[in-house]
Amino acid sequence: MAKKLTSVVGIDIGSSTIKLAELRLRGGAPEISALGLAETPEGAVDHTGVYNSEAVGDALKALFSECGASVGVCVAAIAGQASVLVRTLEVPRMSPTELREHMQWEISRNVPFADSNVVSDFKVLPEEDPNSPNMDVVMAIAPQAAIDTIINAVRRAGRACAAIDVEPLAIARSLQTSYDDLADKAICIVDLGHKTTAINIYRNGKLLMPRQIPVGGEMFTKAISDHLGISMEEAERMKVDKAVIPKSAIEASRNLAADVGFGPMPQSVPPAGGETQGFQAYNPFSDQPIAANPFTEPQPAPHSFAAPDQPAVGVPEPNPFAAPGEGASAEPSAPTPNPFADQPTPTGADQPAQAPAGGTALPDHNPFEAPDAAATGVLPGDSESIRLFNAYSATLDEFVAEVRRSIDYFRSRGGDVDRIMLSGGGTRLRGLTEYLHANLDLPCDPYNPLERLNLNDKKVAPGYAEEHAQEFTVAVGTALHIFFD
Length: 485
What we know:
This protein has two domains: about 1-180 and about 450-485, Nucleotidyltransferase, domain 5 (2-Layer Sandwich), CATH 3.30.420; about 180-325 and about 365-450, Nucleotidyltransferase, domain 5. Helices cover about 30% and strands about 20% of the residues. The protein has helices spanning about 55-65, 95-110, 145-155, 165-180, 215-230, 230-240, 245-260, 375, 385-410, 430-440, 460-470, 475-480; strands spanning about 5-15, 15-25, 30-40, 45, 50, 75-80, 85-90, 120-125, 135-145, 160-165, 185-190, 195-205, 205-210, 210-215, 420-425, 445, 455. Strands 10-6-1-2-3-17 form a six-stranded mixed beta sheet. Strands 11, 12, 13, 14, 15 and 16 form a six-stranded mixed beta sheet that branches. Strand 4 (about 45) and strand 5 form a beta hairpin. Helix 1 packs across helix 3 (about 145-155), helix 5 crosses helix 6 and helix 7 (about 245-260) packs parallel to helix 10. This is Type IV pilus assembly protein PilM. One of its GO terms (biological process) is cell division. Pfam families: PilM_2 (PF11104). It comes from Fimbriimonas ginsengisoli.
């Protein structure tokens, strides 16, 4: 139904903000005629999905009016651990009739919800090799109640819902439209939201691997709040206004990654029949309820990224980014200087600083002080940024580790990744793209869903679009539903 429309509003209802993107086809090309962003009503949405359609509907109605979106038909994205399951399957090549029967069986055995009354759909993905004996199919399953909640919210806002979309496919449409020059590359889109992060890998418009992890921007805010003993509201302001990953920390991560030699996870040899053995211990995408299932609490990767003669990542060795006392050895030893400590490094005007008894001489400067203000936005000696980095560095490293796990798992199954692109409101943390690049040794760029799209400057201020572009990825992708067959 939605693909026959010439104008539509894409809706992305997040746990922190609601985003609208109004799209019209002009001369066969998509044009963004309105963009709107507003805070989600408190308590109306969480990581499991939307559960207060009245509050969300009222917020949508106000946002439509505020941003000037006048189109009455919408495509809304559904998300949340209790609201939708999206999975890519490889199945033998078969006729459309056989595929429908097969997918009904696949859907019935993959329902993860307590509510058995579900809505489902599937789509054959674009083929890379038409001679392959198999084909890839993406399927989506959602409880009827979750679908009804979103439809009711849109109706309360005075609009009609033409289709319900899923976030991974919305992002795929955006990627095809705005970055078609990267079509033959394997792109990992990391969509960092408020409570969760989607890590999806695409090539040639095809969703190769979807994954959701329970790490979001709120965890960074909470880390700052707990570390500094301030409210979540104040911590959020500090994160947005003052938090910058220091250039020196980026360089330290790059050096560590080069020394350790991060690479793909070890692969087991697949026996005859194509089934791969040895993945159950750490497969985060298994259908079985094992410890590393992404729909349960995340578990540490049991493999090591350490190179010979190097300490394994994740074991209790001294961490250059840890707070004092973390990861200490059981045997007494000289304290390791914390390069991100809140207190200034003791130095003398005429003599080098003295180390504690039994230790080594401390440097006469802070080696992790950001020296390049133009590149980092941090003036030399900006202790506030260092103090904030201390607060959220553990969360940051957890986030990086989850991205690495996803990419390494994909590599272990024969794939590879050419580039990482960051989207979502959580990625506004300055220095995040550089930090990921340094840790994973892959090109990393901010994702702009408005790239190559025309903007109606009568309704969309260019400065506003540029500032918030990464937050509109899903909203724009759902609106592009009418641009694709």
